[in-house]
Specification:
42% of the residues lie in helices and 19% in strands. The chain is of the alpha/beta class. It folds into 2 domains: 4-266, Queuine tRNA-ribosyltransferase-like (TIM Barrel); 272-338, no CATH class. The structure holds zinc ion.
Length: 385
Amino acid sequence: MTFSWQPMAADGAARAGLLHTAHGTVETPVFMPVGTAGTVKAMTADAVRASGASIVLGNTYHLMLRPGAERVAALGGLHRFMDWPGPILTDSGGFQVMSLGKLRTLDADGVTFRSHIDGSRHRLTPESAMDIQYQLDSTITMVLDECTAYPATHETASASMALSMRWAERARTAFRVRDGYALFGIVQGGVYPDLRARSADALIATGFDGYAIGGLAVGEGQAAMFDILDGTVPRLPADRPRYLMGVGTPADLLGAVARGVDMFDCVMPTRAGRTARAYTSLGVLNLRNACHAADPAPIDPQCSCPACLRHSRAYLHHLFRASEMLGPMLLTWHNIAYYQQLMRGMRRAIVERRFEAHAGAVSAGWGGRKSFFFEKKNQKTFDMK
Ligand SMILES: [Zn+2]
């Protein structure tokens, strides 16, 4: 099976397709639950599958520190280790290492850092990031990049982007090509359209199996992020998958799919699931709030996940108030299921060429009732074209 993205339908810039990989086929646009340390937190692999997810994310930084890439390789690779035979995308560790601040030193050749776990010294280079992801048996490998800090001056963002592009070339050389496996480049350049354009052009010249857009959702705001997508996505090859890293809220996903993005990952639904926040077709709900204490309704009447089919908001409220671990388990399941339903709805709408109307209706649902908290950031800036 050759790695490829097969277009199936388009509506405006939004597109639906099939991602063929060594570990199975994925329908796009797709949301990938984050399994940082070889587990989507609070969920069994069976539950992740049952939620409708078809590809998950692993994290090079966390797995190289614990249990170590060599151990994962000796135990049959990440797919077997975490009981996920389907496709796995691993990030390169760049984002986590860059967030270590004083614990890391960047040079032209790579980055040296201290583990957040035990303070031990480690080094990542564009080449070693390829080796580690090879040992993990990652279906989709990401190049090591420097995630440009936000805010950054044009000069700083330019130098950072140039470094990432040199590293991307080295990664391309070091990557061991295997049938059905892929290497993605990452567009950087901060909030500067000229740098984003140069970065995209440099990656295309090197040639990758897919193109990611990194360094967004770091504080620039949704409107600025959509502006960057408007400038960047049309430059990317139409026959390759496009992946917006670390994004985002349901409104972010609607807006990015409208702009031609195919793949997403974000910790939001899983993290929210551990803090009593539910994403629903009617907005965001905080199940700790007293108003849910006696509410027999399901979390989301439109959802068919086990938490919604079998339990009430009152029960979830009780579990969170009592610090029972079933609370985060059920709500993470629901949130992942909600994100999968959101993507499924978008895919269907693209195929039926009614994406704009669909996105409007979904977004109207979030603002439809006062009892639901709707994230103001999105309400203010989300505006479908
Ligand atoms: Zn549900």
